[in-house]
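Tutorial handout. Part one gives the primary structure; part two gives the three-dimensional structure as tokens.
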Amino acid sequence: MPVAALAMLVAAMLAAFAASMLFYTRGHLSTPLDDTQIYFAYARQIAHGHILVFQPHDDPTSGSTSFLYPFVLAVGYAAGFRDQHLVLWGLLLNAACLLASAMLVAAIARRLVNDRRLAYAAGALVAINGWLGWTFFSMMESGLHGTLLLAAAYLYIRAKEHPASVWRLAAALALLALARPEMTVMSVLIGAMWAADAYFANGRAFAARSLLPAAVALAASGAYFATLLALTGSARTNTFMVQSVFTSARPTIFSIADTVSTSFFENLRFSFTWFGPAYLATIAFGLFAVGAASLVADDVEARRPTWRGMLPAIVVLGWLFGSLVRNPNIAQHRWAAAYEPFVVLLVVFGTWRVVRYVDALRPLLWPAMVPLIAGSALASVSIVNVYGQNTSDIYFQQMSAAAWLRANTPPDAVVAINDAGALTYGSRRRTLDLVGLTSPDTGASFRQGAASLYEYVERLPAERRPAYYAVFPTWIGYTDPALGILRSLTNFGLARNTISGGTNLVIYQADASLINSGEAPGELPAEAAGWAVVDSVDVADLASEAAHGYAAAAREVGVPPVQLVARRTYSAATPVIDGGRVIAYSERMTLRPRDAAKPWMLAARASGAGAATVVVTSAAGRAAVTLPQDGARWRDAIVARGTAAAGGRVSIEVATEGGAYSSFHYWLLQPE
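Part two.
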């Protein structure tokens, strides 16, 4: 009967979230996150026999955070849940995960408190938790991830009770390692915990069998990363490269520590919001603290690790994992939601422990759960409403834009995007993800800024270069009509934006007529007559910069780069577009002459807001140069000279004497 009650609670939650979706989307199936449809796209390709492939004709990529979850979705796709009907499979699948999680929490709680009613109260707190409801019904990997983590904890306990079933724990850890990249660490740690637990339980005697869970977890983790390396060429996932605090444009140890610590405590605070009003959340936190401290104290007193002390460690480690993304506040903190069932377990255990210490409170043990359950149910009302609004945003913006692209662009069109899910899954057009989640080569350029992104697109072969863009204008940086790069065709705006990355998604048609127009110098001084370009540095083009050891330094530590894309003319009327950097301190580079014995000159396309003076240092000496002023026209200037190139290379440093200047291109010239 209690299991049936939990099933009814989960069914009620599913009905509430689905009703909210259908109400706000006017009867259409949708997802509350665009990223969910990234998984849909990978699942579609798996159903067609292609692993880790995002779209037809692509090489394998690691844009799906979870290796395992797209395979589970692909089962539904293969069974007939196609196109947006895959939403139905996602909802049913995650409802099953939520029910399994509630039952697993009840089973674990039963072993913690030895009270059947209290155990099912813990299960009910999971079943009606609005945060978990939103996270599971977002149809992202978090539901499967959280369920597998709970299953691993439960099977750990079962293996203690029935040692012959340790292989089930090993299997659960193998699946957990494939659920999310950081779960490779968690699964191995749980396996190591089992080995340590067994060592102390056997009177400090080592048994080879105790290493099975850790060995299987390690093997599964190794196989996962080996598969990534073999198929994609890198063992790192794209989601780590795009979202991690370690991959921002210019991270410092202090900025990383600041972000992680702030996010950790925000995850902690958010975990107790779903117990109801502030006073109930405060009480829940106090009970959690009692429960966690008691379990750790029990292990310390026993001088051995046990599964009981493992529970608070999982929560703390989970909050830490959820703090490693640059902005954990987006998407309802879903990165930390998988650990909420463990928070519930510790709150319930803390309640039981407090009541046990105070005899007068023992009759209140079961009634104490009532306000927490009621508070959780009331807190869920708000997020059910938010869920519907979230699905509305995705349907009326990204999904509607995808439908427009499918109806109004050629089937072979390439579309540049910055939200990779619905625009690819729904449009069935080949897409270039400018953010780098599903098109990994773009990520570094996107993080640097508009100019690097433009230079990346410019470098692409014509057949891969996007003819259309479906983007949030503020994300890209070169959508200004004055640049003439993109022409607006239509837009999909939101009057109430609750989840989307931008209020207005605009579809543009790209004008490729000025692609690569800035590669050659336009008007060199007369002294360069008879000289030819033998090497060049295209500033902001990351490939060109890397090939020439280019580095731009800021005067202040940790300041992100500032870039710009400019359209100007020389004396002729034809415009030239080039991307560059705003240099506030210095830049360094190394160019290679064709003949080291010949003289050389360095020409620059650079300008200052005023009479900007820079000091150019090379092996030939040090000289102050006044750059042309910014204006409507480009002017190339000779900024350095030398009689020969020592060692077959020309190393240059350009440093400002005060004000910033804009740097776009450098060319090394030698006599023809």
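Part three, for discussion. Residues 2-388 form one domain. The mean pLDDT is 92.
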